[in-house]
DNA sequence: AAGATTGTTGCTTA
DNA sequence: TTAAGCAACAATCT
């Protein structure tokens, strides 16, 4: 599940690889993975350059010049964006197998650059998408996202404001992209465990102290997860096809029901909160 | 072999 | 008008 740290890792990687290279050829293997009509999609890309790569929440934004359009890429649950610098192999693979051949059976779109290097969009479950938008539509999409962790907008007082207005479970608030951008199921569980707050607590019932713990641990965990290049639980890989390293720091998402808590003598339980599988320790999270 | 998995949208209900 | 909850989507794994 690529969340903010995983998408940010890919963004930083790709920035070093694909900027200012002319786009030569587009291969749409799965039509459904592209939200535009094929001819419009191809025309917007071909002959242009990627001049910048930005991100909002889990959404990647590749800026196109001179066309002044934007390529949005959302990986949803199983998307991968792998850059192959020469014919043959990449460093790691889908899951753990090394030296993965590309394209493979999950490759949905291929973008070829002028020097014959290629960017592969793989997506096992076909939920992810690519879409060309103009600046007006981009701004409209961006405006719907909530505050972005690790930016100036993400302050304790803004977070308090958001949380105290909601009566949904706190986990639902953390997952709501319109309120806070970029947190998914893994980091929501990790942040709430670190903050010692039960995921099913009603948001507007949290104390200032608890919100502060969510704020501080949220910052800390997301920063560290980026530093360690994300979490590979199922099939996330970076732009080189390599796995992340944050799995070693997971304290709760990686636990099974009944396993001992990382922090106290309690046992982990698994329930559904906000429609998602949710692990927590009923003894030290309250 | 049914149920779980997960991010987002869109529908329904309150 | 807004929020909350949930089915749907695809494909695979248990």
Keywords:
4-stranded antiparallel sheet, alpha+beta, globular, 27% helix, 286 residues, DNA-binding, 10 strands
Compile the SSE list and pairings.
Layout: H1 4-18, E1 23-28, H2 38-45, E2 49-56, E3 59-65, E4 70-74, E5 79-84, E6 107-113, E7 118-123, E8 129-133, H3 135-143, H4 156-164, H5 170-175, H6 185-194, H7 208-227, E9 269-273, E10 276-280
Antiparallel strand pairs: 1-6, 2-3, 3-4, 4-8, 5-7, 6-7, 9-10
The chain binds a DNA duplex (14 and 14 nucleotides) through loops.
Descriptive notes:
This protein has 286 residues and is an alpha+beta fold. It has helices at 4-18, 38-45, 135-143, 156-164, 170-175, 185-194, 208-227; strands spanning 23-28, 49-56, 59-65, 70-74, 79-84, 107-113, 118-123, 129-133, 269-273, 276-280. A four-stranded antiparallel sheet has the order 1-6-7-5, covered by helices on one side. A hairpin with a 2-residue loop joins β2 (49-56) and β3 (59-65). α1 (4-18) runs parallel beside α7 (208-227), α4 (156-164) crosses α7 (208-227) and α6 (185-194) crosses α7 (208-227). It is globular, with a radius of gyration of 20 Å. The two termini are 27 Å apart. It binds a DNA duplex (14 and 14 nucleotides) through residues 1-3, 58, 74-78, 123-128, 166-168, 172, 175, 177, 184-185, 234, 274-277.
Q: What's the alpha carbon Rg, rounded to whole Å?
A: 20 Å
Structural class: alpha+beta
Strand fraction: 15-25%
Q: Give the termini separation.
A: 27 Å
Shape: globular
Helix content: 25-40%
**Roughly what is the average pLDDT, rounded to an integer?**
93
Strand order of the largest sheet: 1-6-7-5
Low-confidence blocks of residues: 92-98
Largest sheet: 4 strands, antiparallel
């Amino acid at each position: 599940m690529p969340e903010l740290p995983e998408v940010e890792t890919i963004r930083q990687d790709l920035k070093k690889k694909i900027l200012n290279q002319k786009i030569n050829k587009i291969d749409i293997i799965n039509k459904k993975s592209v939200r535009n009509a094929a001819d419009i999609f191809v025309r917007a890309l071909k002959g242009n350059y990627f001049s910048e790569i930005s991100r909002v929440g889990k959404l990647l934004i590749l800026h196109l010049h001179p066309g002044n359009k934007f390529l949005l890429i959302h990986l949803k649950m199983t998307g991968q964006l792998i850059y192959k610098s020469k014919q043959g192999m990449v460093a790691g693979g889908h899951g753990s197998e090394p030296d993965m051949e590309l394209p493979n059976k999950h490759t949905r779109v291929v973008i070829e650059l002028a020097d014959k290097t290629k960017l592969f969009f793989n997506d096992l479950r076909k939920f992810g998408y690519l879409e060309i938008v103009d600046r007006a539509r981009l701004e409209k999409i961006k405006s719907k996202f909530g505050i972005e962790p690790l930016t100036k907008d993400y302050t304790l007082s803004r977070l308090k404001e958001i949380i105290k207005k909601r009566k949904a479970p706190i986990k639902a608030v953390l997952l709501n992209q319109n309120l806070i951008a970029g947190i998914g199921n893994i980091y929501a569980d990790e942040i709430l465990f670190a903050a010692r707050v039960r995921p099913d607590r009603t948001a507007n019932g949290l104390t200032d102290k608890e919100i502060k713990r969510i704020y501080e641990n949220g910052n800390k965990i997301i920063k560290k997860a980026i530093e360690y290049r994300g979490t590979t639980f199922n099939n996330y890989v970076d732009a080189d096809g390599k796995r992340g390293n944050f799995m070693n720091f997971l304290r709760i998402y990686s636990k099974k029901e009944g396993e001992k808590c990382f922090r106290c003598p309690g046992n982990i339980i698994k329930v559904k909160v906000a429609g998602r599988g949710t692990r927590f320790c009923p003894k030290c999270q309250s």
